[in-house]
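Running this now, will post back.
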Amino acid sequence: MENTLTLDGMKKIWSVMQDERGKNPHAYRSYLATWCPTNYDVWTSLTRASRYWGTDISDPNNPNHGRQINVFEIGCGSGGILSSFAKKGKRVSGCDYGEKYLKFGQDQGLDLYSGEIDTKKTSKNSQDLIIISHVLEHVTNPINFINEILEYLKDEKYLLVEVPGIFDIKKTYYNPSLYFQNAHIFNFYKYYLNQFFKIIGLKIIYSDERCTLILQKPKNWKISDISNIYDHNMPIWANKIEVELKKLQLYHILKINPYYLRASLVSVLEKLGLKQGLKNCINK
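Update: finished.
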């Protein structure tokens, strides 16, 4: 099979996003909230994960230059993430249930449709990269859901998954009560997701406690008859989670979460117009 998307072809795919963030971070966040109101956090995570990726596929020196790359996003909102790939010349498409958001993306020329991924609109074994950002935690049967999605992904190509990570609450949510939402059916952490995707039969390229994962579908992958994911270490992790949540709740009550304090300090410095000057002094 022709290798139309490699890890070496993905790093600078976010260069437009990073450039815009540097020029005007406030406008950038506003832009993302307009384009992708439910899942724009993935951009930040992928910037960190991109250190594992190589040169831009649009580079004429890249052996994959000029080849067609298909990118699909499930739960695409208005297509904010997909638009970055489209600007890099990739063929993008996505699905979602939010008609209002879909209409906005469609008006920008993106190929988005309503409902679940559908063989009448998206062929099986057709995608080089499938993105699932802040979707899996809402799904009643994650195993069946992932197995179905993998049928649309080409062999040896990539699945990118992001969900809220329970050990990342202190950095992202600060307040534990903001993390636990009634719309979230499952809660995840890095160790569990690593086991989940290994048992399903995927190769893990990258994972972190924010629960961003880059996965590869092996050649000749087949659906296995799996009804649950479990191993002997999971009771240990249940105890770790209990300790972590109690600690976070205490941090929140006493207002001593170091990540919250740092964010508050940055906000004050921005309002005073001192943030950039202080950053320049530190970098000297």
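Strands lie at 70-74, 91-96, 111-114, 127-133, 153-162, 203-207, 212-216. More later if anyone needs it.
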